[in-house]
Every structure is written in structure tokens, then in C-alpha cells.
Design a protein that fits this description.
The protein has two helices and 24 strands. It has 372 residues and is mainly beta. This is Levansucrase. Its EC number is 2.4.1.10.
Length: 372
């Protein structure tokens, strides 16, 4: 495993060319005016490339009907399918039927489409329990269904995959946050290693038996026969950061690029790093991993709008999508109240941009979200 150090993370504060432009009103176009949308992942092929079916990309988002306080969305989150094509975005409905999930709500994951363009495997997080219990319990599940040009059906009974063991990873079974933090065991990101053909799941985890609240790790499980074998964490951030969210790997030019998102408030005191997309690079999944751009920061929110976007996802083609969080604050804060949050929450896809890869250096490239 590789440790992300305080010194490396702190250097993110002095990486100005990794800061994103300010999001303006013209950039906040609702995909679905009736719903708040956030964390997203595309339907991909096993090799990591984005699946194009009927000339469209297909994306799952976490989605909820718009409510008074957007912060309440996490308690009722459902996975919903949208597609993106030349005519913009289309809504294709909920991924699962009511009562399908083993949890009280659905959190992030990943999805892989087979070569037949019909067999779809979904990895997702079941948060809480269907019949009650610890609200922030997190378990990872896999289900296989049928994808028919935007229609989803015939999902198999969800099977639990990687499981918290209390050895490599703390078991996430809290009933309430502590100091606005919850322990993690979520966000299964599928990855098939091109060097070995072996299938892996990366996930957001917390280290066990650690006194420091900043105990974030990126976990790994490997498919063994009909099950998944737990592996030691790929990256640890003990004493540095408490949440390394939505980890996923993109392979470029023979190198493995591991990406995750985190928020400024999750860093330990004294680490003045921004909310952003972070990553490391290695020659193999076993590592050792080196922080991209020296600090790990790939794309950070601008200094003037530190809350404007979150949860970046990098496709196999090097495109990056995220969601508009609290934008246009001009020095304000989401802590100013429910009405203020509702007014300033984007709840839609942020402008898309691209990445240029050159060894340990990854730079932002002009695109929908960057000025040329």
C-alpha cells in the first residue's frame, strides 16, 4: 500500500494551474428540472471505455425529487438512468424497482455492459437497511440485469461482494455521524486489469483501529471464483484525510491512474488543500503509487468558489464529469441556512472537461468546462 502524506497533500494549495474556472449561470443547465442529481458513473465496457449505444452515452446518477434542503438528498437517494447525445440529456427512469435494494437507499457504484450490448452488471452501495437499522451502514452489492436501448429489467437478486472485515477495513455500521463524519465502505468502482485480465473493485474505506479521525483509505477486492477476496488498501491517508471518495482507475500509455474526490473539510488541520479531483499513478495496480502532479491534485475548485462542484469521474477517454454543488456563493457558505442552500444548489451535471496525460503529470484541457 502507498501512503498519501501530509506534505504531498498540502502542496495542492500551491498548484494554481489545476484550479477550475468559476461556474456561471450559463453553466448550470438542469438535466432534470424535477430532481436533484449528483454522483454519476457511465455505463462502460470491461476495458474501461465508455459504451456508446444508439449513438448515446448512458449515465447513472444519484437522483431525488427536489426538496426544501438539498442536504437531505443522501437519506433518500436512488439510482436513475440518463443518456447523453447530440440532442442533450434524456431521462430513462429509475434503475431499480421500489424495494429492490437491500438498503434504505442507494449510493454510488459503477456499471459494465457486456459485448452483447444487453447484459449489464451494476455494482452499487446499499446504505442503511431495508427494514431499518443503522442509518449509515454501507454494503457493496452486485446485480446483473438486461439493458435494452435505455430500458432496464430482469435484475438478479443483489449479491453482497466485498465485505468489511475489521482487519484491513473498519466496518461501516454507524447510526449517526460523528463530528459530521461517517466511516466509509462504499462506492464500488469496477476495474479489469489489462495486464492480467483479473477483475477488481476499488472502494472508499476507513482504516480500523486508528485513533485519528482522518483515517481514509482506498480499498481493493479481487474476484476469486464466484466471490471477492479482500486485499490491503491501495492508498492510505491516515492523519491526512478522512474520505477518499469514488475511486476508479483509468489506464493510459501503460500507466495506471487512480482517481478519487475529496472535500477541503475532510483534510486534517494544517492541510490547506481544496475540494477537488485527486489521483496517483503507478506502473501496476500493486503500486507503488506516486501522487499525480506531485501533490495528487488534478482539478480543484477555484479559490473564490470553493464549493462549486464535486464528485469528479474520469472516463476511459479522459473526459471528466462532476455535479454542480453550491455555486455562485461569492464568499457565502452553505451553512447560511436551508433557503440559501436551496437557492444555490446546482444539482445537475457540471461542465465537462478533458485531461491530458504525460507520465506523472496530468493537466486540464479546454473543453465544455474550460476556456480555450
Amino acid at each position: 500500500m502507498t501512503a498519501w502524506t501530509r506534505q504531498q497533500a498540502a502542496a495542492a494549495a500551491t498548484t494554481p494551474d489545476a484550479r477550475l474556472p468559476v461556474i456561471g449561470a450559463d453553466d448550470v443547465a438542469p438535466i432534470d428540472p424535477q430532481r436533484d442529481l449528483w454522483d454519476m458513473w457511465q455505463i462502460m465496457r470491461a476495458d474501461g471505455s465508455t459504451a456508446i449505444v444508439d449513438g448515446r452515452q448512458w449515465w447513472f446518477f444519484l437522483a431525488v425529487p427536489r426538496a426544501a434542503d438539498p442536504e437531505a438528498r443522501h437519506d433518500v437517494a436512488r439510482i436513475r438512468l440518463y443518456s447523453r447525445g447530440g440532442d442533450g440529456w434524456r431521462d430513462h427512469g429509475a434503475a431499480f424497482a421500489d424495494g429492490f435494494s437491500p438498503g434504505s437507499r442507494e449510493w454510488s457504484g459503477s456499471a459494465v455492459l457486456a459485448d452483447d450490448d444487453a447484459t449489464l452488471t451494476m455494482h452499487f452501495t446499499a446504505s442503511g437497511w431495508r427494514d431499518g437499522g443503522p442509518r449509515f451502514a454501507q454494503r457493496l452489492f452486485e446485480t446483473i440485469g438486461r439493458f435494452d436501448h435505455g430500458r432496464l429489467s430482469e435484475w438478479s437478486e443483489p449479491v453482497e461482494t466485498a465485505r468489511g472485515d475489521g482487519i484491513f477495513y473498519r466496518i461501516a455500521d454507524e447510526d449517526a455521524p460523528t463530528d459530521d463524519r461517517i466511516k466509509g465502505f462504499r462506492d464500488p468502482g469496477y476495474f479489469r486489469d489489462p495486464a492480467t485480465g483479473r477483475e477488481h473493485i476499488l472502494f472508499t474505506g476507513s482504516a480500523p483501529n486508528v485513533a485519528d479521525v482522518h483515517d481514509g483509505v482506498i480499498g481493493l477486492a479481487t474476484r476469486e471464483g464466484d466471490g471477492w477476496a479482500m486485499r490491503p488498501p491501495v492508498v492510505t491517508a491516515i492523519g491526512v484525510n478522512s474520505e477518499l471518495e469514488r475511486p476508479h482507475i483509468v489506464v493510459r500509455n501503460g500507466l495506471y491512474y487512480l482517481f478519487w474526490s475529496t472535500q477541503a473539510k475532510r483534510f486534517a488541520p494544517g492541510v490547506d488543500a481544496p475540494t477537488g479531483l485527486y489521483g496517483m499513478v503507478a506502473a501496476a495496480i500493486e503500486g507503488p503509487w506516486r501522487p499525480i502532479n506531485g501533490s495528487g491534485l488534478v482539478a480543484g475548485n477555484p479559490v473564490t468558489e470553493p464549493f462549486q462542484a464535486y464528485c469528479w469521474w474520469v472516463t476511459g477517454e479522459g473526459e471528466v464529469i462532476s455535479f454542480v454543488d453550491y455555486w455562485g456563493l461569492a464568499g457565502g457558505s452553505p451553512a447560511q441556512g436551508v433557503d440559501y442552500r436551496r437557492e444555490q444548489f446546482g444539482g445537475t451535471a457540471a461542465p465537462i472537461f478533458r485531461l491530458a496525460f504525460a507520465g506523472d503529470v496530468v493537466r486540464l484541457v479546454a473543453g465544455d468546462g474550460l476556456e480555450g
